[in-house]
Amino acid sequence: xxxxxxxxxxxxxxxxxxxxxxxxxxxxxxxxxxxxxxxxxxxxxxxxxxxxxxxxxxxxxxxxxxxxxxxxxxxxxxxxxxxxxxxxxxxxxxxxxxxxxxxxxxxxxxxxxxxxxxxxxxxxxxxxxxxxxxxxxxxxxxxxxxxxxxxxxxxxxxxxxxxxxxxxxxxxxxxxxxxxxxxxxxxxxxxxxxxxxxxxxxxxxxxxxxxxxxxxxxxxxxxxxxxxxxxxxxxx
Length: 236
Prior knowledge:
mainly alpha, 9 helices
């Protein structure tokens, strides 16, 4: 995170040594920020759980998250798995970061690979359930787990995922609110996914309405405090 540094008077005000806010750091700064023994495992667990949550919604078959509606439609026309489609679209979205001048982090690259791999591994291990009760339980469980996973990997302070970065980049460039940008992106990907034959349903609506508030509520639980930058004295 970059911040302006005020001049230090003869009697500086007390200042805490840590800050509990999201930092905007490049890859090297993310490593130099410390607390890696907690942050790296938290990032990896969050990304794996994110992929598991997507797979739970797929197995439940009551509707997918907006981006997975697109992924599920795409794989109807090409011989790849859902997880491979997640990886492919992650890197396609990263290409859109270039004109938006978004800054990728270590978590951005890890996100592009691990989420899709974890989704495919979960789909290979679990069989579709019988009965609507179990299917709805998987859908709701997938949404809640997705929120936990989002708070975990974002709270590790290793950068945004490809799709989150596209949202924030468009927000900065257009001046539109994050809510408007996110809603617009999700409408576009759902429409494209439906045109390709993707799976849309009640789960899609539940995810779109619940994931933002849930992740925002959970983020403070997992947000890793990073050391605040030291104050610098200015010449009198």
